[in-house]
Structures are given as C-alpha cells and as structure tokens.
Amino acid sequence: MRILSIESSCDETAAAVIEDGRRIISSVVATQVEEHKLYGGVVPEIASRRHCESINGVINETLAQAQMSLDMIDAIGVTYAPGLIGALLVGVNFAKGLSLSTGLPLIPVHHLRGHIAANYLAHQELEPPFLCLVVSGGHSHIVEVRDYTDMKVIGKTRDDAAGEAFDKAARSMGMPYPGGIHLDKAAQSGDPDAFRFPRPKLSGNPYDFSFSGLKTAVINQIHNATQRGEQLPVNDICASFRKTVVESLLTNFLAASEELGYNKLVLAGGVSANSLLRERTQQECDKRGYKCYYPPLSLCGDNGAMIGSQAYYEYKAGNTADMTLNAAATMNIASQ
Questions:
Q1: 182 close to 176: Cβ distance less than 8 angstroms
Q2: Phi-psi region for residue 103, left (φ > 0), alpha (ψ -120 to 50) or beta?
C-alpha cells in the first residue's frame, strides 16, 4: 500500500510516499528555520503563510521523486493534531482536497504517533509492544505503545517540555534558533559536573516531568554571571544543563520500564537527536540487557515519512476520516 503523507504542524512543510508503513519511496522537507531564526523562534502566522506557499510544490516534488502520479497512490495521510492550528489547517485542507478530487481514503494522523512511527522506517524488526520516550520542543511523554494504534501516556511534563527548556536556555546564552542543537554541540566540550542544577521532585504520578524550575535555574545562573561581569563558561553550563535534563528524562523512563516490565525501549521526537540522550539510553539498555531503538537524525525532526508510516497502521485499524475532518491544536496521543 502506497500512502502520500503530509506534515505541516509547525515550521516544516513536508510530504512523503511510504509503502506498507516501512519503506520510504520519497521524502521532501521544506524548512522555514532560517526565517524564524530572525525572531528567535517560530512565528505562527509566518509559519502558516509559508505552508500555503510551499505545500503544492512540496507535494509535486515528492511525487516526482517517487516517479509516481496520484493514480498510483492508495491513500492520503495527514497530520491533524497537535500543533500550531493555522499550520495544521493548511495540511489538513490540502489533504482533504486531494482526497475529494481523487476519491482516495483520507487518514488522520496524530503528530506524536508519527514521531514514534519514524522508528518503524529505520528498524524493520521493531514491533509493539514497547515503551517510548517522546521528547520534542513541545512535548515530553513516556508512552506505553501496546499496539500500533493502542497507546497510553504513562508520564508527561507538567510545564515546559525538554526541548523547550533546551531552546530557552540556549537563547539566554545568545545561541541562534533552534537553540537545542547548538547547546548540544557546545556541551560536548564542556564539564558536565561544573554546575549543579535542581532535579525537581513531584508529588502524584512518579513518572511525570517538570523542566520549568530547571530552565529558570540555568537562566538565573547566566544572568547572575553577566551582572557580575564574569566571563560566562558557556560550554560548562551547557554540559551541566544537558546532563541534568537527560538524567531527569532517563530516571523516569527507566523506572517506568522496570515497573511495567518492558525490556524494549524507544526514543522519538526532535530531542531524540540529542547526542547525550542517545548515548546514555544505549548505555543503560546495554547494562540491563534491554533492546534500544532511536531514529536516524534525518527522521528525528518533523517529516512526512513518519506520518506516512503511522498512516498505514491507522488505515489498517480502520481509522479514516471524511470531509468533516478538522485540525486540533492539542490532543492526547491515546485519543485518536
């Protein structure tokens, strides 16, 4: 089954042709990073306009790379939640138009389910059930993936996401957007034990995260050094901050895996590209005899291929939509 998939939830206009949920035939991503870099982050109105300008060309290029026409496609998949509502609507309405004009089935895909499915494209042997840590600029979730379309949130952030904390800390040090990438690079030549940042303790669900206080602590450290006229040890701050975030994520992830009995752990989302998170997760899995999976760097960020992969499994589960499909800015991963 060949699915043409569309992703437009934030600042990438992306499309792909995916076969049977596991093979990338073609994949195109038009990024807006350079434009949003001028503002230090994504401007929703600009993102929506650029999607409108780019989506037709991205779809045409995707089909051209695949050497296919629409009559060789079996279904249309599209991200419909969560994300920037204006950006989502561009992709959803374009997909609805394609479905209406061709008669092809329309498959709505939850963005975070797509991030998890990126691993199916890279690891042909990977099948549910498994436990997944989904970490991105807007989300930090521990998800129990019972089946391809049966998921349960075990823990999540109560305030800032890990990626958001990385980006805001990096911005405080004058790094360009997207800051998390630059912070990760700077941390590689810093001392991870130079600074001690707080690790929040939460009441209630033991697997929930909180990064707001940690983000504030590193920003205060930066401001205090600046006000005293001290030279900012950027690499050391980055290394210490990165270590604290990664340890916070892994502590809960590993504890959940032990309690729930999972020995197959998966990383997904933009922050799964973080070098220390990948390294430490692999080390901890090797130590315990667990299987560890994470996507290649090319599939960590937003892309159409991951949406096409998950769309295949949504279709097999009977999850299709009609012309009343709407976008949603927020939605639980288990709600679809």
A1: yes
A2: left
